[in-house]
Design goal:
The protein has 469 residues and is an alpha/beta fold. It is built from 14 helices and 17 strands. The strands form five sheets. A five-stranded mixed beta sheet has the order 6-5-7-8-9. It has a four-stranded parallel beta sheet with strand order 2-1-3-4. Strands 11-10-12-13 form a four-stranded parallel beta sheet. Helix 5 links the parallel strand 1 and strand 2.
């Protein structure tokens, strides 16, 4: 291989690798696992008993190959009743959230949600959640867990079943787990819970707890492990691989990275509030609270809605120093290494802007922003008078000051409105920032102004290796 070929390969990938590359998804499922007799009976009874006539089926991306078969099967199940069935695939935000906005486009009166679900309370439409039913060798599970019997003695053990194994929940399974682990106390729970209330804090927090998650090392485990309190050690039993592993999510490196982002949020002169949900209850209250706290610290805010975020979208907002993601519990914390500016969760923004959190170490990480509102478990009142006149940045070492008289937008009802997209503009709100002049006109077709050209065959393939080149 020549030196030129070597240098080229270092900065690009082969055409085969580009075609074979796949996005990170959940464990592959079959049609029988997500649409069996239990699913058919549950969904059919639910639609008939409530008299729904326009039903939306919402699928995550990896369920789409089975979406048509499920839609046809549901229509046949409800025949001869006149029920319209629609398929929702490309969701506005995360697939774990019920997309009530897309369902409203077809005037739906109900939604059946398949797969991963954060179970945030929907406010507009009734929802039925259907989880996959994955196979699990219970005897092998009990055999693997017996190796943990020594550390579980005289301790409370909390075992959480992921969505694929919730159909196995029973008193018999709990009795078998107690016999295998012999703990002082054992709690068997579902995650996410059926009622929508977090189970991570259940049990006697004064006991040192061993927590076991029956499922894959996925985003649901990350959310659960961060919000659980008094956990000595976490273990993951992956049913597909029949493997047992240990993991501690709250490592020193993770904590340092999140506290660094909190300091960057304090240093910001302009915060971008990204609305990543339009259905979760209380999101407008959170927006108003963040705007009030930012105003007290002399920080400008800009409300943004861009759908699913990515680095290219957020790179358009160069004036924003830090982004706050307002989303569901499963979709509110990003590893922002690839982004131009840091992205913090609502909880991290609360710790940065609310002086009541100064020098206070949280017992658990809060992923559900409703818990930060009044009547929430982690609510701390905001007192603007407690904000220090001057503060020193731990990142830059510079002195931070407060300029309250420069902001007038927080508290204004008009500031709660999302920026509209009039005339293809990226942002048209009047907040004193420079978004007003940033517009995209699109391609100029110049119809009738250019001479027709002869059609020629162009290049084909991928840029690294065009054919006919």
């Amino acid at each position: 291989m020549s030196s030129s070929e070597t240098s080229a390969s270092a900065f690009s990938s082969s055409d085969t690798a580009a075609l074979e590359r796949q996005t990170e998804t959940e464990q592959p499922v079959t049609l029988a696992q997500i649409w069996n007799e239990n699913h058919r009976r549950t969904s059919g009874d639910w639609v008939r008993q409530n008299g729904y006539k326009r039903v939306c089926l919402q699928f995550p991306d990896d369920y789409l190959p089975h979406s048509n078969a499920i839609s046809v099967g549901l229509r046949e199940l409800l025949a001869p009743e006149d029920v319209k069935v629609f398929i929702l695939a490309d969701t506005t935000y995360g697939s774990c959230c019920v997309d009530e906005i897309a369902a409203a486009h077809v005037d739906a009166d109900s939604v059946i949600h398949f797969g991963n679900a954060c179970r945030s309370r929907a406010t507009r439409l009734p929802v039925l959640y259907l989880y996959p039913e994955l196979l699990l060798d219970v005897d092998l599970l009990l055999s693997k867990l017996q190796s943990l019997r020594g550390e579980c003695t005289d301790r409370q053990v909390c075992i959480y079943l992921d969505i694929g194994y919730q159909h196995l929940y029973s008193e018999q399974l709990q009795t078998q787990l107690v016999a295998a682990l012999q703990p002082k106390d054992l709690i068997l729970e579902l995650f996410p819970p059926i009622e929508g209330d977090s189970t991570a804090s259940k049990g006697n927090s004064s006991l040192e707890r061993i927590c076991i998650f029956v499922g894959a090392d996925n985003q649901r485990f990350a959310n659960l492990s961060l919000t659980a309190s008094a956990a000595v050690q976490w273990h993951i039993y992956d049913g597909a691989a029949a493997s047992l592993s240990s993991k501690n999510p709250l490592t020193a490196q993770f904590i340092r990275r999140r506290y660094f982002h909190i300091e960057k949020c304090k240093d910001a002169q302009t915060l971008g509030l990204i609305v990543a949900t339009l259905s979760a209850e209380g999101y407008l209250d959170v927006v108003a609270r963040l705007q009030t706290m930012a105003k007290g610290r002399g920080i400008k805010t800009q409300l943004i809605s861009v759908g699913r975020i990515n680095p290219a979208k957020l790179a358009n907002f160069l004036e924003i120093d830090c982004f706050v993601l307002i989303g569901c519990p499963f979709n509110n914390m990003y590893d922002s290494k690839e982004y131009y500016k840091p992205i913090v969760s609502v909880f991290e923004a609360e710790m940065a802007l609310n002086p009541a959190w100064h020098m206070r170490y949280p017992e658990v990480y809060v992923t559900d922003f409703k818990q930060l509102l009044p009547e929430g478990r982690s609510f701390l009142p905001f007192d603007e008078a407690a904000i220090p006149e001057h503060d020193v940045s731990l990142v830059s070492g510079r002195l931070r000051g407060v300029a309250n008289d420069s902001l007038e937008t927080a508290g204004d009802p008009a500031s709660l409105a999302l920026a509209t997209q009039a005339k293809m503009s990226l942002m048209t709100t009047d907040t004193g920032l420079s978004f007003e002049d940033r517009t995209w006109q699109g391609l100029d077709p110049a119809l009738g102004q250019t001479e027709p050209a002869q059609l020629k065959q162009g290049l084909s393939g991928i840029p690294i290796n065009y054919t006919h080149q």
